[in-house]
Design goal:
The chain has helices at residues 2-13, 16-45, 55-62, 69-88, 92-99, 101-137, 149-180, 184-204, 214-226, 231-258. By secondary structure, the protein is mainly α. Keywords: Membrane, Transmembrane, Transmembrane helix.
């Protein structure tokens, strides 16, 4: 299994365009957007913006980028590219006899999840660096970015929520790529569902929080974490995300196991 993981990592490293735009562009864009907004504030007001009161809490809130439809589109493109490349070049029939289907599928998904974890870590690091920079520019660090002990647990919980949301996205995208053997047919539905969920949530708010969709589940879990919603929101959110993740992995594995690969 380690050899498969190394091979998939090497394959992805040799495709820097997919690696960046599919997995690393989201944290880069999040940091760039924050810098642009802070710069606009300086130009408009003439004053330096203040650092967040709690650096870890701010970093935890920044992980909400995992629920952004544009971010999910970029991640979906990255995941689908990792799986679709074998269909495009008809490489499955050469790889499967050597390693087996499920180990190969697991290695590809594991590499995608690893890249997503790296993206989340970079998001946290970028937010904390920006807060630290603002605290220095604001005239010292004695009381600018204190760290509360409870914020560490909040950051860990936010990281888990973001990871589960992205892992579900990866599993669903991989399954659709396997079913349709096409990147466009996998990425477009994922994006359309994501943007539709965002619009519905903007209109109906908490009224649709109980609908068992990954986007609603992740937002319900964040509502429990950040604004003190009822514990049922957190339980339902985590449970729904886990159910979607397991169902997508099982469906993708079964379909790939039964899929004829003589010409792929």
């Amino acid at each position: 299994m380690s050899a498969l993981l190394s091979a998939e990592l090497l394959k992805l490293l040799r495709q820097p365009g997919i690696l960046f735009w599919g997995f690393l562009s989201v944290p880069a864009a999040a940091l760039g957007l924050k810098i642009a907004l802070e710069s606009f504030f300086v130009l408009r007001s003439g004053n330096l913006p203040q650092a967040q009161a709690d650096a870890l809490l701010s970093a935890a809130q920044s992980l909400g980028i995992a629920g952004n439809p544009i971010a999910q589109l970029l991640y979906a493109i990255g995941v689908s590219s990792v799986f679709y490349v074998e269909y495009r070049f008809s490489a499955w029939r050469n790889l499967v006899p050597r390693t087996g289907r499920i180990p190969l599928l697991a290695a590809k998904l594991a590499v995608c999840l690893l890249c997503m974890v790296i993206g989340l870590v970079l998001t946290v690091v970028g937010d904390m660096i920006l807060n630290t920079a603002l605290s220095f520019l604001g005239g010292g660090t004695s009381n600018k970015t204190p760290v509360q002990a409870g914020s560490i647990l909040v950051l860990c919980a936010a990281f888990v929520i973001a990871f589960l949301e992205l892992a579900t996205l990866a599993a669903v995208t991989a399954t659709l790529t396997i079913i349709f053997r096409s990147m466009i047919a996998a990425v477009v539905p994922v994006f359309l569902v994501g943007i539709t969920c965002s619009i519905l949530q903007a209109y109906f708010g908490a009224a649709i929080a109980s609908v068992p969709m990954p986007s609603f589940a992740a937002d319900a879990a964040r509502a429990w974490l950040f604004i003190g919603a009822e514990g049922s929101y957190g339980i339902t959110g985590f449970g729904t995300l886990l159910a979607w993740l397991l169902a997508a992995v099982a469906a993708g594995s079964f379909i790939f196991w039964r899929q004829p690969l003589n010409t792929e």
